[in-house]
Amino acid sequence: MDEILDRMGREQVKRMPVIEDHQLVGMISEADLAKHLDDKRLSTFVERVFAHA
């Protein structure tokens, strides 16, 4: 999860495609990922989001 959040931050995107076996199987958003973060990682995520606002 950290890797994808870091990549989203670097590329300044809110959503990314999910690819499996060279096929698009869905999309994932920062909000989808944030639902599964522990308190420390959620705090870091929120700080990063608001720093770019």
Task: Describe the overall structure.
- This protein has 53 residues and is an alpha+beta fold.
- The protein is 53% helix and 25% strand.
- It has one domain.
- The protein is built from 3 helices and 2 strands.
- A two-stranded antiparallel ribbon has the order 1-2.
- It starts with a helix and ends with a helix.
Shape summary = globular
Number of helical stretches of at least 4 residues: 3
Strand content: 15-25%
Q: What is the H/E string?
A: HEEHH
How many distinct domains?
1
Helix vs. strand class: alpha+beta
- Unreliable segments of 5+ consecutive residues: none
Rg, Å, rounded: 12 Å
The overall pLDDT average reads: 86
Query: If strands are numbered along the chain, what order do they take across the biggest sheet?
Result: 1-2
**Spatial separation of the terminal alpha carbons:** 22 Å
Q: How is the biggest beta sheet arranged? A: 2 strands, antiparallel
Percent range for helical residues? 40-55%
Q: What's the total count of β strands?
A: 2
Keywords for this entry:
53 residues, alpha+beta, two-stranded antiparallel sheet, 3 helices, 2 strands, 53% helix, 25% strand
